[in-house]
């Protein structure tokens, strides 16, 4: 990383002044170290990565830039190219090669600019004497083969010495649509708006 930095600015400032400034900022590198690194022959790993990158690019672009690490690695095995899966992943990551995916980024929170924050009614006081005094809740999502499942849940809070039974069962609900109001049921079963095929 330091060598790349020197390479980028040595035409403007020179190697020695750059090394001097770097030493002043606790980056210990001497000009002789830089020149020795530049004269060092490439390592066996870098040569192997360079050869494999050509094969990886060939497979990646031959398949319309759709193949990810697993499929590129499997195609290289079919072509009898010796390569490990982790090595293929590292090379594709460094080269910026990424396969197509059906997964979409999920966002469950859209902050409103300028909106007032909800007041903290609990004030982080968890030393409660009895259950059902304070409930905490959250909303999240779980990826599945059928799609994204959105889940909301609520749970009782009470003093640390209370039994687990006093906190259980939590109320929860699930839905396939994030914008539908999902109200957790206090009995622990799902309670969502009635819409056949949409929520359960």
Question: How would you describe the overall organization of this protein?
Answer:
This protein is flat. 36% of the residues lie in helices and 14% in strands. The model is unreliable at 186-200 (pLDDT under 50). Helix 1 (2-13) packs across helix 2 (15-24), helix 4 packs across helix 5 and helix 4 (44-62) packs across helix 6 (85-95). It is α+β, with helices and mostly antiparallel strands and 200 residues long. The protein folds into three domains: 2-39, no CATH class; 47-95; 123-200, no CATH class. A hairpin with a 2-residue loop joins strand 1 (134-144) and strand 2. Strands 1-2-3 form a three-stranded antiparallel beta sheet, with no helix packed on it.
Write a brief caption for the model.
The protein is of the alpha+beta class. The chain contains 6 helices and 3 strands, in the order H-H-H-H-H-H-E-E-E. The chain has helices at about 1-15, 15-25, 30-40, 45-60, 70-80, 85-95, and strands at about 135-145, 145-155, 170-175.
């Amino acid at each position: 990383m330091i060598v790349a930095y020197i390479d980028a600015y040595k035409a403007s400032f020179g190697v020695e002044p750059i090394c001097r400034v770097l030493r002043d900022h606790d980056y210990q590198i001497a000009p002789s170290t830089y020149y020795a690194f530049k004269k060092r022959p490439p390592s066996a790993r870098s040569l192997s990565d360079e050869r494999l990158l050509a094969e990886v690019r060939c497979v990646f672009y031959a398949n319309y830039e759709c193949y990810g690490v697993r499929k590129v690695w499997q195609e290289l095995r079919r072509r009898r190219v010796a390569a490990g899966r982790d090595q293929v992943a590292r090379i594709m990551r460094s080269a910026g090669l990424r396969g197509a995916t059906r997964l979409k980024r999920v966002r469950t929170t859209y902050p409103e600019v300028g909106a007032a924050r909800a007041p903290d009614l609990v004030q982080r006081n968890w030393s409660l004497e009895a259950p059902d005094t304070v409930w905490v809740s959250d909303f999240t999502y779980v990826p599945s083969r059928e799609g994204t499942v959105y889940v909301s849940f609520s749970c009782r809070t009470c003093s640390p010495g209370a039994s687990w039974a006093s906190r259980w069962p939590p109320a929860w609900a699930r839905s396939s649509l994030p914008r539908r109001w999902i109200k957790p049921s206090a009995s622990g079963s799902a309670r969502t708006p009635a819409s056949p095929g949409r929520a359960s």
